[in-house]
């Protein structure tokens, strides 16, 4: 389909260039006066297409995507395969895999266990957090002499 489109567009371009050549040659016969106030207002004729250009389906000014500098077909294949692997496999499937990974840090388990412990303490009528969570005998506080003039903000 694209080859047919290219063939048709080149045929139309060839017909236009021939028509412009004929019109341009007839304009040389009669000289006209330019009445436009604009200095740069001109008609630009498209570049003429020769039969060699029409017969050659490869474009002359091919710009590589950077994968292959010798052949256009290899360059396009490498470009498409690279973007397929990068976008489809890495981004799409990588995101899907990462989103549905199991909970490796056991966050859900810890949260459920915390809620179960809170419910058990509420039903037992015990404080939710024990005031003696850390044994007071194991805490070593500095003496008043060590603190001296240090301001203590509570």
UniProtKB/TrEMBL annotation:
Accessory subunit of the mitochondrial membrane respiratory chain NADH dehydrogenase (Complex I), that is believed not to be involved in catalysis. Complex I functions in the transfer of electrons from NADH to the respiratory chain. The immediate electron acceptor for the enzyme is believed to be ubiquinone. It is a single-pass membrane protein. This is NADH dehydrogenase [ubiquinone] 1 beta subcomplex subunit 11, mitochondrial. It comes from the Eukaryota. GO terms for cellular component: mitochondrial inner membrane; respiratory chain complex I. Complex I is composed of 45 different subunits. Interacts with BCAP31. The gene is Dwil\GK13572. It is found in: Mitochondrion inner membrane. Keywords: Electron transport, Membrane, Mitochondrion, Mitochondrion inner membrane, Respiratory chain, Transit peptide, Transmembrane, Transmembrane helix, Transport. Belongs to the complex I NDUFB11 subunit family. It holds the Pfam family ESSS. InterPro entries: NADH_UbQ_OxRdtase_ESSS_su. Its main location: mitochondrion. The chain crosses the membrane at residues 83-101.
